[in-house]
Amino acid sequence: MTQSFEPAGKLRLRARGFGAASDRSFSALSLGAGCLVLAILALILITTLREAWPALTYSGLTFITSSKWVPLEVNGAGPVYGALAFAYGTAVVSLIALIFAVPVSIGIALFLTELAPKRLRSTVVTIIDLLASVPSVVFGLWGIIVIGPALVKIYNPVHDAVGGVPVIGKLFGEPVSSGRGFMTAGVIVAIMIIPIITSITREVYATVPESEKHAALALGATRWEMIRGAVFPHSFGGMVGAIMLGLGRAMGETIAVALTIGAATQLTPNLFASGNTLASVIALNFGDPGVPPGRSALIACGVLLFAITIVINYGARVVVRRAEIRMRGAAA
Amino acid sequence: MTSLAEPAAPREAVAPELGRRALSGRRRVTDLVATVLIWIAVVIAVIPIALVMYYVIVKGGRVISWEFLTARIPRQLANPGGGIGPAIVGTVLMTGVASLLSIPLGVLGAIYLNEYGKQGTLARTIRLMADVMTGVPSIVMGLFIYAAVVLSTEQSGLAGALALACLMLPVIIRSSEEMFKLVPDELRQASLALGARKWRTILTVVLPAAISGIASGALLAIARAAGETASIVLVVGLTQRVNWHLSGSNTALPVQIYRNATEPFQAATDRAWGAALTLVVIVMITTLIGRLIASRFATKERE
Known about the structure:
The complex is a heterodimer of chains A (332) and B (303).
Chain A: H1 17-59, H2 62-65, E1 69-70, E2 80-81, H3 84-115, H4 118-133, H5 136-162, H6 168-171, H7 182-206, H8 210-218, H9 223-252, H10 255-260, H11 278-285, H12 294-331
Helix pairs in contact in A: 1-12, 3-7, 3-9, 4-7, 5-7, 7-9, 8-9, 9-12, 11-12
Chain B: H1 2-5, H2 25-63, H3 66-70, H4 85-117, H5 121-134, H6 138-150, H7 157-182, H8 185-193, H9 198-226, H10 230-235, H11 253-262, H12 266-302
């Protein structure tokens, strides 16, 4: 009987031959697919920068300091490509969008986590999902045909009322008759970024420990005091991240803005005036970019936009992740 | 707890008032104002979606007919008549090819993240970069494909499909990874204990267990890609006829909406609303199927 332990020597548990090769090649394949993300991101930077190079060397520093964009030769003088007005437009439109979207999104997120009766909650979630799935060009179409002309009827009285006030009056100057301008574009973009800000703030609020909320209520806090004392301090980081993600989305929004902003190159404090953003100018002018290096200059606008959105998105993800980790620690 | 409740009887006379009336006026008003504001926020979000849907259905519904869905695109957008047939073909073709490219690659990438890389430095970097990549504006993706593909070839349906695939890839990687995470480790261990190789375990045990969740995530990505405009406008060119080939200029529904929307003629506006209704129906159906699969999957999880 003792001899039956012998065959142990014949059993091979180590990977060898075809089987091991198949395992290795599958893991290499999946590694390759994973690295594709890094490769594409690197390629985006390299190829667009290469195509943008002629314009960047042509314009030099004036590309970001000049607000003149003259894509033709005037009296022998060459074209001028300065993207400052577009960068300004991007900033103005996304700020307007955030001012409208952030309070609404936070309100909806609070409604879903703290206030809503169960049956209403799923309805509101469905509506927000619906809002997220409408293509941006449909919002643009709605904006140019319905909302622009409708908003002018609000802009005019606002301009009449506060247009004369110093400083603030400058913001509410003469509206464009079609309604196409920074404000209209900002409102449309605000509608489009509500779903993303809502969904992330909602996730963050959901991680606030029930015990803290109950503790606040047990101490006699009203619901609002509970939200202010237990929910907000806990989710501050996550909320900042969500707002930054919304900002990134707002800056990159192209077609809806291209349709509703009115396509003008100007630096003006008037929120009711027409303008352009880094994204919309590419879409509007790419078919007819003007004298070389016109197309290259448009691609350079894209590079600038890419750099800004990458920084914002990276920051947002890091902030959200850090907040998540901290919260998981607190909840445990 | 119960021992505390028993001697409460004699104190009843001095029980503190804990109802809302005991709150100071200021606190009560603040709470009321906050509650009202939260309700208003919800109403504000409902109004635009209701309005958009109303306009798309009413204005688009007037235009839609079999003729409209199949006819060629008119050369002059100002003229009435014609349809959006080639755009529907282009949208189906490009999103189809983009899905064929991005879904297998995305799922493979997710397999790397969840089954091989796990919490390693490279996997963590890829995860973060995939998140960052979802935030890359679609117009930038269009410029990338223009610079990398169109300049050395031509404006084509293939270029459009590549742009859409790049936009879909990170979304599919992240959603598939979430689904792989839900597969219980016991399944993997059982398969490995039976002597299956890791790749067989992944392909025959882990993947089938997660497939419905992956499918639902992929359908949501497809729905988003079908409505994508900015990148397509730059790289596919224009055509008035149906083009089933990947080479040569093509067009898509969002492109037609965009072009018609910029024209000041009634015929063009009508066509834009008709195309918008068509696109919204396609997107909603795809989204709905995705959600249905997801809810099926969720109930299976709970059992």
